[in-house]
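// run 5 | inverse folding | seed 20
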């Protein structure tokens, strides 16, 4: 009868071992019993970049990369994008269920009343150069927030964790808007508690001399949907940073600063900015062919294409592409969309991309929307960070509560010099 085990034979010794199989995995620790002698440390698994290693069990987000499926707590991303708000989705990610009206009102009230940051943070941002990249400012200011909330160190207290998670979700848009206004040499626009989460973000970005800012409802809704689409994505690079740094039991502000730093990279959240720079470099549809040839030679990457998990069309990219045209109807068409659509078509018919299952990902079209909203390219990754904050925090909270988790500390395969004695400088 079939058993949930794996039988392996170590041909170095002829011994056979039976390893339990659970959730389609074997425990790497079960390999340690496989030795060639008593003083042998035992077998380890070797998996650079964790291409085939599960670092945790999780109940938050499910992705089927082959079928292009993404679900938050079991709810399909396209349904949440169509029917939910971002704060409703954030609540779902954090607490596991869609909120009742009363719970959503309470959560929204809490977030709304934590959007302010200490004035020292505004002064801190003023000290950055005028042309400082907003992601660099975000990494610095999120980390700095930890110095204002020493109670955040009490990571084993559930109520304290909930308060810090509320603070972080509430304050990310404020930090992002402050970084943008600093870049533009504009005075800060303070939060307006009468507005929605996304409406208030637009207020803090774009309010000028008018007494009260009124967000464009089409832009406000589009931004809210974009935040939903970016809210979580299981164990991606920045979430792994959040979990890894958080496993040392540091406060969540410091762990989130590490996650922001990981997201900053052009292979991760920085890709939405890199896509628009790439489309500008291509310049026109007639140049696409030569650019694709350069990508196939490895000279450049098609930014916004490819994914470690999705070997099908990223379901988020489908929603964003549709959303882009809705925004363009409101604010005017972004001319780069024609290059993007043509590039997608050419790439999806080219054997190089087909063979490697390289499809547009979440970053391919999002930047075109942000640009049409009047935002500068270098703030695009910051918008990704705002959306991803509830996901980072939900994953962090799950890690803190997971009795199987300990401080993250991988092993290595050492291939360096064997023991040797110090050589005095005079003898070198
Ligand atoms: C995000 O993990 C997540 O979930 C991330 C994310 C999230 O929500 O958190 O989904 C958000 O980060 C999306 C990805 C954004 N990044 C980009 O768009 C940058 C461009 N894409 C790539 O650099 C790449 O596709 C990655 C980083 C996304 C995935 O890289 P992998 O899984 O390590 O794949 P790889 O680099 O080993 O590539 C496999 C092959 C290689 O060719 P060969 O060596 O087999 O000949 O595909 C090629 C690569 O050269 N390839 C590309 C390519 N992506 C992969 N060739 C041209 N253009 C590309 N974009």
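// decoded
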């Amino acid at each position: 009868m079939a058993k949930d085990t794996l039988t392996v034979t170590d041909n170095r010794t002829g011994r056979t071992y039976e390893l339990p199989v659970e959730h389609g995995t074997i425990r790497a620790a079960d390999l340690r019993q496989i030795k060639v002698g008593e003083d042998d440390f035992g077998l380890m698994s070797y998996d650079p970049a964790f291409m085939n290693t599960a670092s945790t069990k999780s109940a938050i987000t499910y992705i089927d990369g082959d079928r292009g499926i993404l679900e938050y707590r079991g709810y399909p991303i396209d349904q949440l994008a169509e029917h939910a708000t971002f704060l409703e989705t954030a609540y779902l990610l954090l607490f596991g269920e869609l909120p009742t009206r009363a719970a959503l009102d309470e959560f929204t009230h809490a977030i709304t009343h934590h959007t302010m940051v200490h004035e020292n943070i505004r002064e801190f941002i003023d000290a950055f150069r005028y042309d400082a990249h907003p992601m660099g400012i975000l990494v610095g200011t999120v980390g700095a927030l930890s110095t204002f909330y020493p109670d955040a160190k009490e990571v084993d207290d559930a109520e304290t964790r909930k308060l810090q998670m509320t603070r972080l979700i509430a304050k990310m848009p404020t930090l992002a808007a402050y970084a943008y206004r600093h870049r533009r040499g504009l005075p800060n626009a303070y939060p307006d508690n009468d507005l929605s989460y996304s409406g208030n973000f637009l207020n803090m970005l774009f309010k000028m001399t008018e007494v009260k800012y009124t967000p464009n409802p089409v832009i406000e809704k589009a931004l809210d949907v974009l935040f939903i689409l970016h809210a979580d994505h299981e164990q991606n690079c920045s979430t792994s940073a959040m979990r890894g740094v958080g496993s040392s039991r540091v406060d969540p502000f410091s762990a989130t600063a590490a996650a922001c730093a990981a997201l900053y990279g052009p292979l991760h959240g920085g890709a939405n900015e890199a896509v628009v720079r790439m489309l500008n470099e291509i310049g026109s549809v007639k140049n696409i062919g030569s650019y694709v040839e350069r990508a196939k030679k490895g000279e450049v990457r098609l930014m916004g294409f490819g994914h470690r998990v999705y070997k099908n069309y990223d379901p988020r990219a489908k929603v964003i592409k549709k959303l882009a045209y809705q925004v363009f109807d409101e604010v005017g068409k972004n001319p780069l969309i024609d290059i993007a659509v043509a590039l997608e078509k050419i790439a999806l018919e080219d054997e190089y991309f087909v063979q490697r299952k390289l499809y547009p990902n979440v970053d391919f079209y999002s930047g075109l929307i942000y640009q049409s909203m009047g935002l500068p390219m270098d703030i695009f990754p910051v918008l990704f960070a705002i959306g991803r904050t509830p996901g980072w925090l939900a994953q962090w909270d799950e890690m803190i509560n997971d009795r199987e988790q300990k401080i993250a500390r991988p092993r290595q395969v050492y291939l360096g010099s064997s023991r040797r004695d110090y050589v005095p400088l005079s003898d070198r």
